[in-house]
Magnesium transporter MgtC
Amino acid sequence: MNETDTLIRLILSTLLGGLVGMERQIHHKPAGL
């Protein structure tokens, strides 16, 4: 795995985490870990 793969994975995980957080916020649920 090179730097590009790492960067892509980091960006994807950030976007997915953001989507989950937004969905939780809309439904007024705590975004626990």
The helical segments are 3-26. The longest helix spans residues 3-26. The mean pLDDT is 89. DSSP finds one helix and no strands in the chain.
